[in-house]
Design a protein that fits this description.
It catalyses: ATP + (deoxyribonucleotide)n-3'-hydroxyl + 5'-phospho-(deoxyribonucleotide)m = (deoxyribonucleotide)n+m + AMP + diphosphate. With 349 residues, the protein is α+β, with helices and mostly antiparallel strands. Helices cover 14% and strands 30% of the residues. The chain has 5 helices and 19 strands. The strands form 4 sheets. Strands 11, 12, 13, 14, 15, 16 and 19 form a 7-stranded antiparallel beta sheet that branches.
Length: 349
Amino acid sequence: MAKPTRKPSLPLLGEAATQLRSRPGRRRDSAQPNLPLDPMPARIEPCLALLKPRPPKGPQWTYEVKWDGYRLAVHIEPSGVRILTRGGHDWTERFPAILAEARRLPVSTAILDGEAVVLDSQGRSDFGMLQQSLGGRGGKRTSRDSIFMAFDLLYFDGHDLTGTELSARRHLLEGLVPAGSEDAIRLSEEVDADGEQLLRVACEHGLEGIIAKDRNSPYRSGRLGDWVKIKCVQSDGFAIIGYEKSTASFGGIGRLLLAARQGNELIYVGGVGTGFNERSASELREQMDTLIIAKSAVDTGRKRNAVFIEPKLVAEIEYRAWTHDGKLRHASYKGLREAADQASVYEVP
């Protein structure tokens, strides 16, 4: 079937019905420099989410799922790819699948901000599975199961994007990492929904929570409120100050003794006796036994059959609430935080 003849477009006419023509510009001077490129930073301190009890309201807020893993920055340069932890440690060789996929991305220079996770059979991020894939805290194993959920783009093809609003950064990121990818680098997709409704659905599906981000904000390092996290279940880092022995429990750990920070001091906030399996308890006991001290670094009251350690290990603890006397309720052990992940101890208000 022959295509219909296309009519030529009408010329743009001025007020006097005369065709308008552009003025010829000057030829570009070949000696004139191109637009300047921004030097690529060696590292950018991450933007951190501020914990809030409820999602913020307003048209400027956009939402994502909260991933439970290790915060990473993927630096793509002509000389190669670097994968840095939140604390600036180079973990490039520990994530071979993410490294290989970063090399395949169609870009010459970039810094991607995101989270390394391991997904369970339901597609939920599982911090314990991630730790096991890396060989536990202090382990040196490479994780071939980890994927990188990219949620921001800080540097792109020679240009620093940190001063640009989030909506523009996301637009460029979505062009680099398409939605729906099943590769080792995937897009953490924005969800267009009411915050309260999204949180309810996230909690019903067993997710950790959601993140709200101000779409008009630049990328600012630190916990300044541009990003907000709302959790289904509370989960924070607490210092391990000892454990109560038990012959009937994994690793001989009946209960971990925990402390939070209050000003410049640590205070006792109770213990946790669930969440362990045989492997995690054995690895934890091995590390704790290298830190044993004669007297507790924190006032725990009278404890029978307790072993005290230096407060150098930070455990991620999931809990439902606090008791009236400042102790954790319904606590469960999730794993040890890495020093490279800048593990912070919960600060009592």
